Amino acid sequence: MARKQVTLTRSEVDTSRPLLEVEDLRTHFLTESGTVRAVDGVSFALERGRTLGVVGESGSGKTILSRSIMGLLPTRNVVRTGSAKYEGTEVAGLAAGALRGLWGTEMAMVFQDPMTSLNPVMKVGNQITESLRHHLDMDKGEARETAIALLRSVGIPEPVQRVKEYPHQLSGGMRQRVMIAIALACGPRLLFADEPTTALDVTVQAQILDLLQAQQTERHMAMVLITHDLGVVAGRADDIAVMYAGKVVEKAPTSVLFSSTRHPYTEALLKSIPKLEHTSHTRLEVIPGRPPDLVSPPDGCNFSPRCAYAQPKCFVEEPVLETGPGGDHEFACWYPVGTPQGAEALARNQADAAVTEEVA
Amino acid sequence: MAGTGTAHLRDPSETILRAEDLVVEFPVGRTGLKVHAVSGISIDVKEGETLGLVGESGCGKSTTGRALMQFPSPTSGQVTFEGDELTALHGEDLRNIRTRMQMIFQDPISSLNPRRTVGDIVSEPLAVWAEPRRPDRGPLTSAAAVVAFAVAGASALLGLIYAILGVVVLTGVWQSSATFGPFTVHGAAVGLFVAMVGAGGAVTFRAVGLGLWRRDAEGRGQTITAFGVFAVISLVVFAILGGSPLLIAVPFALLAVVAGLLYAPGGSEDFPGLGPEGAKLVDEVLTSVGLDPAVARGKRPHEFSGGQCQRISIARALVLDPKLIICDEPVSALDVSVQAQILNLLEDMKARYGLTLVFIAHDLAVVKNVSDRVAVMYLGKLCEVAPPDLLYERAAHPYTDALIKAIPVPDPEVRPDGVAEKLQGDLPSPVAPPSGCRFRTRCPKAQDRCAEEEPIIRAVGDGQFVACHFPLVDVPD
């Protein structure tokens, strides 16, 4: 079989550089109603063996970001600019045939919905061996043994029987384990996990996240963990990037992000999670309104119409992602949380709201 | 876990809904095996209280919620709602309780009809209950209706055949024999007329019987007028044609229409119809769930986000002003930020409309936020019943403890607990549940006794009840 592949020989690889470097990546969809700016200028770097958590609401562009890097987007009516370098090789804009050489062996993806991501008319064993035989040229018996070993390693009991079963015979958690086994089959060094636990129960979610973490450590694999739940990434990601309307609004090492949250959106997301230590019937703090229309985003800061800190400047001028004091904490906000300007802005808005209430 | 017993039930006079020893089983194909979805659950809810039902997928919490609604009815057990024994009700009587008990489903987008406007969706309950309730039909009325329907259908068919034969003979395609009857222009016209009336009667009867068409005050007036016109026309035609024997079928066809009307399900006079009063109520409910009625009414569900669709579902449930709403995972499909909006909305609606809620979810943190009392379920049985704050402070059941530990904490200082502390494996098959305590196969504290003897639910503190042989808290003697 003649395969057009990008084969990375180890000698070419410069280990001093990050595994993945994304620079000003933009993905726009051309639709009837206008250009949807799904990803609008995202940059980050991911080191080997590290985990980046990407957090945001539905429609914030986090899934499209990962698909843009993987090259899993439709070819028509998509405009993609910017660069994504994997091991120093530009992967943005590569043809599908060339990308096929990277998929599975270099980068892999675990999708959100294990119910619909598996082929319902194919035995799970064959779904795992498919990529093993294609990429690693294993023979049938060898691939089968490897599949069984993989299923065992992702915690599926009786893997010898399971390889002969169809997806509908497995529970949701088991199916997600199979998805992980498929993604890990060819030993990728970069794993995208796109909401891997959103469709699952909390108990199973904990199991799956533990499994991903264990596999990551074992294989020294880098991971991009995409989720809408800050609770999921809190204890598991090294760095977190918070996305809003196609842009990264705050990025920091996990502990820094939680201890000194700077962006009002991150703060609002954190506050909207019901917490166990709160007594029951505690009023949840909500983010008013809904995410902006990505065809015609608001002027100035995208978050300004929903922001508790918003000032006149925010509606006109768009803040850029800048590194704050300390060096590794980036945020895009004119009146950051936890700074004198932010506190002043919030106090002014609260005073205004009180006045409006009195008038009403 | 997972035991039976009724120690946690309160005095029936205090509660609005009480289910005792609820069992729901489903057959597995023709194997003779059964899925034991719910196996002896007893719960009760006080007026104005929110009962949280929590557990993993497949634990039977949704089935319990549906069994409370008699949707479908439980295999055995009793459900008492406001003094009515629901499991004994059938047909029209059962339908009548639906105005007082409503349900909100998990997937907001697929639980709304994509082809109808939001105005139609929210006002449909009013359309269904638009007219004063009719006394129950006796068996005689039903039998008469069925006979009239059959005769109308038969006459429609006969009339059609007669008309076709008439046309065929008149056009000279086929020579009639003298014995077959007088095929004239008149004959064909009569046949066609009878066919139309008969078909009209039969179709009305079926449409009404299937609930495709319901009476409201205006519609009934129109129907009566239409009958009058029909009756006059049929008499005139009868006179002109000089009394064709086929016309005998006409009164039967009319009878089928009338019977159809008698057969139509009625409403209750407690509700406004679709008139201006109903429209006002729909606007009011849409406003209270945070939608602008002027904008929302004419749109269809796909034009809204998931959170907004859930608001529409809530509006639809509220429009009949029910006493009780069963919320089946109403926020599981939503983002955290939207989830907070919907949870707050449910609390507001509860206060504003004086609702009692049964809130079903798998996330204990969500359930804790909205509930006054939480019931933890596992594989068709109850594990623990307690006030939410107490449940979190000192979980008595090992399963509750595992559920609490599984919730991701949005704080990087709290590292996820070691694997050993977490619940491993999947739920056992509900077709052949484990003996004794159903949780024992995954329980870190399981002993031999757990396999032999099913734990019975008992009090372990102030309002806290647990079904476990070895609870995590001290049991008062």
Protein described:
The complex is a heterodimer of chains A (360) and B (477). Chain A folds into 2 domains: 198 residues, 3-Layer(aba) Sandwich (Rossmann fold), CATH 3.40.50; 92 residues, no CATH class. Chain A contains 12 helices and 12 strands. In chain A, the strands form 2 sheets. Chain A has an 8-stranded mixed sheet with strand order 6-7-8-3-9-10-12-11. In chain A, strands 2-1-4-5 form a 4-stranded antiparallel sheet. Chain A starts with 19 loop residues before the first strand and ends with a helix. With 477 residues, chain B is an alpha/beta fold. Chain B has 15 helices and 12 strands. Chain B has an 8-stranded mixed sheet with strand order 6-7-8-3-9-10-12-11, with helices on both faces. Chain B has a 4-stranded antiparallel sheet with strand order 2-1-4-5. The longest helix of chain B has 32 residues. Chain B is elongated, with a radius of gyration of 30 Å. About 1% of the residues of chain B have low confidence. The chains are: A alpha/beta (360), B alpha/beta (477).
CATH domain class of the largest domain in chain B: Alpha Beta
Shape of chain A: globular
Beta-strand segment tally of chain B: 12
Strand order of the largest sheet of chain A: 6-7-8-3-9-10-12-11
Distance between the ends of chain B: 20 Å
What fold name stands as the CATH topology of the largest domain in chain A? Rossmann fold
Mean pLDDT of chain B: 80
- Please outline the major beta sheet of chain B: 8 strands, mixed
> Portion of residues in helices of chain A?
25-40%
Greatest interface:
A-B, 48 and 53 residues
- Name of the top-level CATH class of the largest domain in chain A: Alpha Beta
For the secondary structure, the number of strands of chain A is: 12
Round the Cα radius of gyration of chain B to an integer and report it: 30 Å
State the major sheet of chain A: 8 strands, mixed
- What structural category characterises the helix and strand content of chain B? alpha/beta
Percent in strands of chain A: 15-25%
Helix content of chain B: 40-55%
